[in-house]
Write a structure and sequence with these properties.
This protein is α/β, with parallel strands linked by helices. 30% of the residues lie in helices and 26% in strands.
């Protein structure tokens, strides 16, 4: 068997090394995209163009690799969103040899003379994940994005403007390594109105002096940091303990916040679930408006607001890994029973209540629904100024009840 040689082309044939050329010249079959094959008009062997039918590609390689040497030409670096990953997976690592080269991203940062070890890299090719992109925009200050014809630099600029993700400068690098290469900086407003030559990529840099810098985010933020109706908020210390009881251990979890109030638990959960999905369900329009304002303030794009009278509306949501119920009132039992039916295996439900009657309701209902339970009681006393010092003012005790799917 002759292992397939996957040759990274870099930006153009100018980036090919002597080792690359040796593998190409010794090959019996040269495979690649139409543009790559056009560089090798004098290749004496068989040339085969790679199209979107990758299954046919691997079948062709399997049929020929035992009697012929095959070289596959790949854009940039073959293992950076390249075809080499697919060939390793389908043919097996023993059947593939990788010859790396310059990636478009490394070349882009070289063009603008900027280190990129701290950059976040993201591809917009294929499936588009809006929540994932928003999460990256929220967290990172230096981002490189591989575009495609649909998700172009102009599309990205409009997306930034629509989502109020301002404070970024855009560098659009068109046709790197080709005769038509262009490297230019734009504001999102400027880029939104332009057309750009393919292929291209974008580097986003966040201006540290941007006027609309996001609010500082941390767990257990003071209640006054949130828009809320007086008293209708999970208090800061209780919020921190509640989040620990939810055990948000994976950044991609789905959380339901039932009876979200101000959305404070959802907002702080979003710091722990950068790739997750959080659904804040609330009945009252004025509280819905407050949740939306808090989402905008903290750029918590993972949080989706749903106006409903619980337990209605749950059937339309993705199944949760975690459920938080911030009260429930007289309808707590029905909310627990209905929502627990959607909770995934090994899921956790956490219920906060200040009502003595609801403690037993929560414990009994969770047990009846097949959960094991634990309960803790928290009572916070906070300092209040006095003429010659401070006193401690006690808040209402809160019971935090956790249910574990067995």
């Amino acid at each position: 068997m002759n292992p397939v040689s996957v040759i990274g082309m870099g930006l153009s044939p100018k980036d090919l090394t002597a080792a690359h050329w040796e593998k190409i010249r010794s090959a019996d079959i040269l495979m690649g995209g139409k543009r790559h094959l056009s560089y090798f008009e004098d290749f004496p062997g068989q040339k085969k163009e790679i199209d979107k039918n990758l299954k046919e590609l691997t079948e062709f390689i399997r049929e020929n690799m035992f009697r012929m040497k095959i070289a596959v030409l790949a854009s940039g670096d073959p293992l950076y969103y390249g075809i080499a990953s697919y060939l390793i997976k389908t043919l097996g690592p023993e059947s593939v040899c990788i010859y790396p080269n310059i990636s478009s991203v490394s070349a882009a940062f070289a063009r603008i003379k900027m280190p990129w070890q701290d950059a976040r890299l993201l591809s917009m090719h294929g499936k588009y994940d809006e929540d994932g992109l928003l999460s990256v925009l929220k967290q990172e200050k230096k981002i490189a994005l591989l575009t495609d014809p649909r998700h172009s630099p102009a599309w990205l600029a409009r997306f930034l403007m629509e989502k109020a993700e301002t404070g970024f400068r855009m560098c659009v690098l068109e046709q790197l390594g080709m005769d038509g290469e262009q490297v230019q900086w734009y504001s999102p407003e400027e880029a939104a109105e332009k057309e750009f030559a393919e292929p291209n990529l974008v580097i986003l840099l966040k201006d540290g002096n941007a006027e609309n810098r996001e609010a500082e985010c941390f767990l257990g933020m003071p209640d006054e940091n949130f828009e809320h109706q007086k008293g209708l908020i999970t208090k800061a210390e209780v919020r921190a303990v509640t989040l620990s009881k939810l055990r948000l251990s994976s950044p991609e979890m789905v959380l339901w916040d039932l009876g979200a109030g101000s959305g404070s638990v959802s907002i702080e959960a979003s710091f722990l679930l950068p790739k997750g999905r959080i659904y804040a369900l609330e009945q009252h329009p004025e509280r819905i408006a407050q949740i939306q304002e808090n989402i905008a303030r903290y750029r918590a794009h993972q949080v989706k607001v749903v106006q409903t009278v619980l337990p209605e509306g749950l059937e339309t949501l993705p199944g949760p890994d975690r459920i938080f119920i911030g009260g429930g009132g007289k309808n707590l039992e029905n909310i627990i029973r209905t929502s627990s039916a959607y909770l995934r295996e090994e899921g956790i439900m956490v219920i906060n209540t200040v009502l003595l009657q609801n403690i037993q309701t929560a414990l009994d209902t969770l047990a009846d629904c097949g959960f094991s339970t634990e309960i803790v009681q928290i009572q916070i006393s906070s300092g209040r100024s006095m003429p010659w010092g401070q006193r401690l003012a006690a808040q209402n005790p809160v019971w935090i009840i956790s249910g574990f799917r067995q």
